[in-house]
Amino acid sequence: MGGRVIIAIDGPSGSGKSTLGKALARRLGFLYVDSGAVYRAVGRKAIDQGLSLEDHEALERVAVEAAIKLIGDPDAQRVLLDGRDVTAEIRLPDASNASSVVATVPGVRRAVIEKLRAMARESNVVMDGRDIGTKVFPDAKVKLFLDASVDVRARRRCDEERQRGREISFEDVRAEIEERDRRDRERAATPLVKADDAIEIDSSWLSVNDVVGRVLEIMKAGG
After folding, report:
1. Total domain count for the chain?
2. pTM given for the model
3. Lowest CB count within 10 Å: 97, 110, 210, 212, which one?
4. Beta strand ranges found along the chain (DSSP E)
5. 84 and 151, same domain (yes or no)
6. Are 167 and 116 part of one and the same domain?
7. Which domain holds residue 174?
């Protein structure tokens, strides 16, 4: 593949996008960009400013003004918001909820898309999210749509939360994922859909290495 390479990974919450994205970035030496972290940072700033999540004009202003940087290698990436490290804060429940709300606001999505495109101007990139292959980089050379069953995704999220020292019930996580899926698929601004030319991979019963191997085969075949 000649020229700059963009690998776009889309899919629902908990499907393994970030795990796959990090693994591919390590293997290929690409920049890894977690688009969800950018939306979480916007949500964090909105909360810190005491904004109503129903005030779309204010949320758009925050998204435009926020200086968001992702630094470090894929396994230790840090998120800077206006120069402050918010890596841990954006994973707290309030920021998670806020990010799923602000991501439905058209003005916020426009602002974040511009930030994501700026991050990818100088490097080969692996980027994951909900609309990377359909909206952010519709001309990406490799487009993937990663999916998994709701139960598998809920179990993965429970494991992640326990690793962070937070106990949460499987039923609560499953309900949260189903609600997130509904928001993602029904939002007016770039809803979650599979790009026509994306290759769909169900990761429910595949290891990370299995999925990485599949993607490398796709790249070798020319996408």
Report:
1. 2
2. 0.85
3. 210
4. 6-10, 31-34, 68-71, 78-81, 84-85, 125-129, 142-147, 199-202
5. no
6. no
7. 1-30+124-223
On whether the CB atoms of residues 41 and 90 are closer than 8 A, the answer is yes
Dist. CA 106–CA 54, nearest whole Å:
13
Residue 114 shares a structural domain with residue 129: no
How far apart CA 129 and CA 158 sit, in angstroms, is 20
Q: What is the arrangement of strands in the sheet containing 125-129, beginning at the earlier edge strand?
A: 31-34, 125-129, 6-10, 142-147, 199-202
Residues 6+ apart with CB under 8 A from 68: 38, 41, 42, 79, 80, 81, 115
Instruction: Check whether residue 1 and residue 53 sit in a common domain.
Output: no
Q: Estimate to the nearest angstrom the gap between the alpha carbon of 62 and the chain centroid.
A: 19
101 within 8 A of 47, measured Cβ to Cβ: no
Same domain membership, residue 194 and residue 104: no
Q: Are residues 115 and 188 in the same domain?
A: no
Whether residue 40 is found in the same domain as residue 114? yes
| C-alpha span between 135 and 202 (Å, rounded) | 22
Per-position pLDDT tens, the chain of length 223: 446 899 999 999 889 999 999 999 999 999 999 999 999 999 999 999 999 999 999 999 999 999 999 998 888 899 999 999 999 999 998 998 899 899 889 999 999 999 999 998 888 999 999 899 999 999 998 999 999 999 999 999 898 888 878 888 999 999 989 988 888 888 776 778 899 999 999 999 999 999 999 999 988 887 4
Nearest to 126 by CA among 141, 111, 115: 141
Task: Say yes or no: 49 and 4 in one domain.
Answer: no
